[in-house]
Amino acid sequence: MYDNTEPKIYIVGYLAHNVTDKFGRLLLVEGAPMTDNMIQKLKNRRISFRLSEENAGKTVDTLQHLPVNDSNSPFKVPEKIDKKFENFNLESVMNASKYLNILLKEMRNDSFLGNNLKALSQGQSATYSHSINVAILSVAIAEKMQLPQASLQEVSIGALLHDIGKMLLPPDVLREVSRMDDGQEMLYQQHPRIGADLLAADKLPLGIYLTVQQHHEKYSGGGYPYGIKEDTININACIVSVANVFDRVTSGIYQRNSLTPTEAIDRIRSGKGLDYHPLVVDLFVSLFKKVPQVVC
């Protein structure tokens, strides 16, 4: 997907099954191409695995042009999108969905991105559904902002993988998101950094890496994991931050008392210039069919 110049890579074989760690967290999916380096890392962690002999022994220019071997892959926006999108301009939502479908097909043919997206969808289906929603909203905002094509692709991939770091969190932390203790909260707040570090294993554009790393930073400071603010936060991360909050607070999966879309947009507007980039908030609000009046 990205044209990175690298030496030829020898594929030892392909995983014959999904690989999980001792906590049951999905690390690699069936069909993932395996190199000597990847095999050694699994052995160092004492993680058992089995390779398929089919197509083994190949030499390729890069891993990223190998197909993802799964006919039932999740590389498609659901035909029936979330009901909350009925509150948005239909043309903007449909255009964003079409763009994502094209991008997801490209990601399917990128071993690194495809494997991570499959691992997220199979290991944490709720997080994956959330990520699709966040990506649709992020693309719609980015198109309103008239970002160049390269930046649009970066914010889209960053949105799809913004929560990839959650795959490496202890399971009990994810089960208790709505009522974490201080220790669990500290661990949870590391998922953007963990996700960015995971993606740093491949030579991806900086905009993708920073989107994942900074999507919980606040415009006026005080966010996590680094507490940076204003223009030091990548604009992609500012876009995903707003999209992420909207979908999270309107989804019963993440909190017991979810908000209506109208209540959610009101909360986001109240955080304009504090938690969220002012321009991003304005563009996000403009996507709604009927914008609620601000109560003074």
Automatic annotation (TrEMBL):
KW rRNA processing (keyword) present: no
Q: Per UniProt, what is one GO molecular function of this protein? A: hydrolase activity
Keywords from UniProt, A to Z, are: Hydrolase
Reading the lineage from the top rank, the first entry is Bacteria
Q: PROSITE patterns given for it?
A: HD_GYP (PS51832)
Residue ranges of every copy of the HD-GYP domain listed in the record: 105-296
Question: NAD among the record's keywords?
Answer: no
Q: Which NCBIfam families match?
A: HDIG (TIGR00277)
Q: Which PANTHER family match?
A: CYCLIC DI-GMP PHOSPHODIESTERASE PA4108 (PTHR43155:SF2), CYCLIC DI-GMP PHOSPHODIESTERASE PA4108-RELATED (PTHR43155)
Protein name, as recorded: Metal dependent phosphohydrolase
Q: What is the lineage of its organism?
A: Bacteria, Bacillati, Bacillota, Negativicutes, Selenomonadales
